Amino acid sequence: MGVRRLVRVMGVRRLVRVMGVRRLVWVMGVRRLVRVMGVRRLVRVMGVRRPDGIGTVTVEERDRFEEIKERLRVLLENQITHFRYCFPFGRPEGALKATLSLLERVLMKDIVTPVPQEEVKDVIRRCLEQAALVNYQRLSEYAKLEENVGRLVTPAKKLEDNIRLSELVIEVLQQNEEHHAEAFAWWSDLMVEHAETFLCLYAVDMDAALEVQPPDSWDSFPLFQLLNDFLRVDYNLCNGKFHKHLQDMYAPLVVRYVDLMESSIAQSIYRGFERESWEPVKYVPTL
């Protein structure tokens, strides 16, 4: 089959794709390739690289590139949103960090101009906000809180479920810090926001469990101790939004507990005094 007929049957683009540019040039020779295809057609298909590094592409190729670029951006953002499940326990090692770096390059307008850091930060912030919702929804499903929907649940059972959920919440935050914090080192403040958002979602279930507890019951104190012990040793979350909310929720309960303990101790002392009797002791001289 002659070269002209081969080009006419397969098409130039398909021929270049099958054989490769170098092999096609080696087989046909540059002069013969130019004579068969024509200069304009050859430039349009293969492109021309100028000394400044800028190449020529067709409108169709540009649109195809933008389509692939957009699909890649969506894929990368989805992986960052599901970072706990796409990169479990930080594996493969360095993959999450490479994904963040690739996203930054995909957001670039061209190969020369770097994307503004605020723009990258906004994209990652949006991904981590969505990640907090995804992580908490899956955690709630794992804790099987939905099993209680439509059934009469006692306050004690609701508190027990919430304490179990709080243990899982703490475990997730500790895993994020241990396995994923290094990849987000450049955006550590966004990981703090992610943790606060995650805790705020949990706060809704925590408040619902505390609201149904009897006013004079101290059974919820273990929940406060569990969460407070975790938050007070975390530099970023200590006295944060959720920590202050936790303190505000328990402050009236603690004040009431202290008042009742004070009143109970005072009554015990008074009753003890009332049962005591004062009798003079006879003095017996010793020899």
UniProtKB/TrEMBL annotation:
<keyword id="KW-0770">Synapse</keyword>
<dbReference type="InterPro" id="IPR010439">
    <property type="entry name" value="MUN_dom"/>
</dbReference>
<keyword id="KW-0813">Transport</keyword>
<dbReference type="InterPro" id="IPR033227">
    <property type="entry name" value="CAPS"/>
</dbReference>
<dbReference type="GO" id="GO:0098793">
    <property type="term" value="C:presynapse"/>
</dbReference>
<dbReference type="GO" id="GO:1990504">
    <property type="term" value="P:dense core granule exocytosis"/>
</dbReference>
<dbReference type="GO" id="GO:0016079">
    <property type="term" value="P:synaptic vesicle exocytosis"/>
</dbReference>
<feature type="domain" description="MHD1">
    <location>
        <begin position="204"/>
        <end position="287"/>
    </location>
</feature>
<dbReference type="GO" id="GO:0012505">
    <property type="term" value="C:endomembrane system"/>
</dbReference>
<protein>
    <recommendedName>
        <fullName>MHD1 domain-containing protein</fullName>
    </recommendedName>
</protein>
<dbReference type="Pfam" id="PF06292">
    <property type="entry name" value="MUN"/>
</dbReference>
<keyword id="KW-0446">Lipid-binding</keyword>
<keyword id="KW-0472">Membrane</keyword>
<dbReference type="GO" id="GO:0045921">
    <property type="term" value="P:positive regulation of exocytosis"/>
</dbReference>
<dbReference type="GO" id="GO:0098978">
    <property type="term" value="C:glutamatergic synapse"/>
</dbReference>
<dbReference type="InterPro" id="IPR014770">
    <property type="entry name" value="Munc13_1"/>
</dbReference>
<dbReference type="GO" id="GO:0008289">
    <property type="term" value="F:lipid binding"/>
</dbReference>
